[in-house]
Every structure is written in structure tokens, then in C-alpha cells.
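Q: I have 170 residues here and want to know how they pack in 3D. Can you give me a structure?
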Amino acid sequence: MSAALPDRVDVARQVQARRIYAGSLSFTAMPRLRGLLATTAGEARYHAQFDRDELGIDFIALRVEGALPLQCQRTLEVFALPVRIDERLGLIADERDEAALPAGYEPLLVEHGAIDLAAVIEDELILAVPVVPTRPGPALDWVDDAAVEAPPPTSPFAVLAAMKKQGDRR
């Protein structure tokens, strides 16, 4: 199912042909993502469809699914974070064109008329990695130290009063 993605694809030709790329991409093939993962075992499945909408905007409908192996920063255990990305990337030739994109489109800057589709998939996965990865699950019960009732502090004069009472009994 997984054919190797070309290094660069001509965006205009892909949009005109309404080309679809589908397959899977190994985490080992993503050098920038590898540094964020606990292990490189696994892969991401992708479906990228080039098209043009009714307003004449060229876009890529990109869907990426996978489970990112991350290290929990609370327990230091490795866990798989399920990821599902469903984006519509508006293809723009200049940063000024970003303002013309309708709502629901994320801008994708196309330099020299071509893009590296594997790098685009990798970028989307990098954006899905949380800043502080923590295993999903029940929240820990943290005790607020201020809420714990501490015994009232003893006064130094209370000690003197107790000594005086002992002296009075003699």
C-alpha cells in the first residue's frame, strides 16, 4: 500500500490532476520528529488529496493518523499518543496571500512551485506533539499544602505558662 513519496511534487500539476497520495510513512524516515519520540518504532498513515475549491483556491486535504511513542514527563514511562490530523492546507505562493484564505484553511507556503509532501506530513506530526507529554488517564490527587490543616503553632509563652503551673503545684 505504501509507495515511496517523491522528494518534491509539482503543486500545479498535482492540483490539475487532482492527485491523491495515500500510504504510510515510518517514523525513522522523519529526522526532525525522531528527536521528539521515545522510540522510532511505528509509522503514520496518510491520505493527501490535491484539489481546487469553488473559490479557485488550491489546497491539500491532508489526513494523518498514527500513535506517537512519547515519554511521559510525569512517570517517565513510554506511552503511545493517538494522533489524528485532518487539515485543509491552502497552497500559497507568498506570505501575503495568507490573509486571502477562507476560514478552515491552514496556509502552506509553496516555494518554487513544489513541495516535499513527506516534510509536510512530518510538520503536522511535530505540531501534534504536546509541549509536555503526559500519559492520558486519571488525574493524580495532589494535596494542596495550604489546605491541609496544621496544628496551631505553639506559643513560646505557652511553654512558660506550663512551667509556671508546674511550679505552683509544688
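Q: Anything worth noting?
A: The chain has a mean pLDDT of 88. The CA atoms of residues 79 and 85 lie 19 Å apart.
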